[in-house]
Amino acid sequence: MTDVPAVVLKGITKRYPGVVANYDINITVGRGTVHAIVGENGAGKSTLMKTLYGMHKPDEGNIEIDGVPMQFSGPADAIKAGIGMVHQHFMLADNLTVLENIVLGAEPTRGGLLLDKRTARRRITEISDAYGLGLHPDALVEELGVGVRQRVEICKVLYRGAKILILDEPTAVLVPQEVDELFGNLRELKSEGLTVLFISHKLDEVLSVSDEITVIRRGTTVGTVDPKATTARGLAEMMVGSELPVPELRESTVTDVPQLSVSGLTVLSADGRPVVEGVSFTIHQGEIVGIGGVEGNGQAELVEAILGLRPVSAGTVKLGEQDITGWHTRKRREAGIGFIPEDRHRQGLLLEAPLWENRILGHQTEAPNARGPFLDIAAAKHDTERIVEQYDVRTPGIDVPAASLSGGNQQKLIVGREMSGAPSVLIASHPTRGVDVGAQSAIWDHLRAARAQGLAVLLISADLDELIGMSDTLQVILRGRFVAEVDPKTVTPVELGAAMTGATESEGGTDVEAKP
Amino acid sequence: MRQRLGRLGLNLVAALIALIVAGAITSIVLSITHHSPWSTYKDMWTFGTSGDNIAVAINAATTYYLSAIAVAIGFRMNLFNIGVDGQYQLAALLAAAVGGAVSLPTGIHQILIIVVAMLVGSLWAGLVGVLKVTRGVSEVISSIMLNFVATAIIAFLLQPGKLAHLYGQNLTTRPIGSSGQVGGLSLIHNSQTKVYGLVFLAIAVGIGFQFLISRTRFGFDLRATGRSATAAQASGVNVKRMVVVAMLLSGAIAGLVNMPVLLGEAHNYSLNTPSGIGFTGIAIALLGRNNPVGIAFAALLWGFLDTSSNILQFSNVPTSVVAITEGVILFSAVIAYELVRRYALKRQMRTVGRDLGTATAPTTMEVTA
Hints:
The structure holds two protein chains of two kinds. Helix content of chain A is 33%, strand content 25%. Chain A is of the alpha/beta class.
């Protein structure tokens, strides 16, 4: 009986527009175990879990639950088969009680009409006690902390009879003590014979809680390991692969000609709160200035303000000698600001338009795309061919829609396009996010080459190695302010990470000098 | 290129399927109500293809076409201008009033009337755009509300002593003199009915629309905004201004809707001036996929169905049967187009995957764990 694994995924392949798909995924999850699935952002973990939860059908491959082959045509089928999913973003109604939230959509009734609260309360209390969730059925959800809300979500899926739980990055929203509590709950679930699939990219947590770890890289499983026999470093190597290119700059090409100068820049959010506050920096020709920070600390707003996509409430932006603070986005782009957006689907591409139209996007008014008020389609197409060739965009032609390219190839197209207008400044937000290793290395090469030509680059990235390796100057942003300038030649990722969370003092690193 | 032809072919197949489904459902409705589908269709065909009725159908199609182009301009940038109906009627009334009040040399007179109509339509639609970008009002709500406002304004102005005179039971504006009229053309063999001279205006509008959309920077910005407002904005498009400009343009074309009738046949605005063409335009724009050539075919189909349905009353078949047909065509066409769109995208992705061989297959790596 116990020999039959709870979940078997065999040869799962999923093709999906524009993102890393799953390819030949093989995972076996034993019953009553905590099985972690780790991989980098964009490695295909979420795609895989959506397949398992019936949110889309795999193109190839089989799913077996308790030894029975399954075909899910929707989450309802997966729930019926005993699979429950706890999403990273909670799906709870704040104004309802714990009990109401848990039964929502699966209400026990009396006579088919009245909500049978007594039965519901009894069952919830049973579940809560059995797995040590510590829930009070009548508490209002809006009064609960994040950790408790997560336990409500877990109870919700258990209430629906789940025997296999998928937890999507459950620790992302928790503080350390809450993580410990969660792991206590997971051990409880496990001891009661439930199976937990735990998705994460935090390796230390994964090592401490799971019985088995499967590593996914570039859409496929690269191996399953025993946490006792491996280390965080070993896992990291599996996650990124040994061929990982090293981001590094060779000799300095920094000149003393300022190309982009931002001074005292303040940006307000819609409700009047400063999201960028008093930020000043200068990028010289041939210089890459990196900005490190936990996401959501004002990086996106800073970028949008520099591009004129967001109103500035104080401060100035200068391009060369010219004050461009009041300029419209188009004028700024015509003046030579290139832009690699952090979300290429939202800001960088017209997904349903062919590649050559995407070549025009952002450069509608410039040669070779336009002649006077008219488009020069022939020239635009010709130049698209050149980009495809020079930037190694893998595509059967330039008439296919951008959506049909993989994420890395879409990104190469964007990089090629933005480099084409001979920009003097490049705003690069996460330029290698979600792209494969080969494309990553190529994008770095292009950045280095353009820097040698005198390009001024603002680099924003969540990849600390990339930031340290590719920056001439490195600023740390925290709650909209620049809090520290670190020397990329000597700083370690650990020190930089500490500075990003505002924990500089305790690290005591000599490289990190906190600003007053 | 092969891909694009394939896609065009798929769209034609989708339109054809829509017609077949509509024919089938109409046949069922006819059978249920004890009419012979076959003889009904035969009557409609015989009647609809007689010389006079072809001209009538083309005339109807001309106004439908202008209305659909006005709607399509909005659709191309994700704006739903339901207000074409109010825009063209208000434009027609004021243009007729101005045209009837002045006497100018031929040429200038017609141009004045047309310019007034475009301006009125444009301003009325522009209101919608301004409300959207300054106050965030959905264009669907405001344009449909402005239809009612337009109707009320027309009822107010079309009274004796204001812009209208009473002729029998009818209220009309002062007729436009011959210097402001556009004569009909005997384009159809064996037809007493002439085709509106302004059919060429409609054709020019179609060509102009296609050129603007596909060949100009402005058209690119418009399409880009329709596909992704965020990407368009990042590319330097002033999205707010674009919304207003697109509405002004859509309204200007809406203002033309009644011009072929006004200058070619009625010569005044009256209680008999047709209403509802703005809504027909929405259906035709959808059926024609916002493409000027597709819209031309859809408009002709609609014109033909409307005209040939007139025979039905003689065989005691309710003419509303044709309304059912039109509705079903539209409904099944919209579904079929969406299916085709998804299928084409999927097929494209598969093709890309195949052409690149192991697009999704990563290189296998040895794992030491």
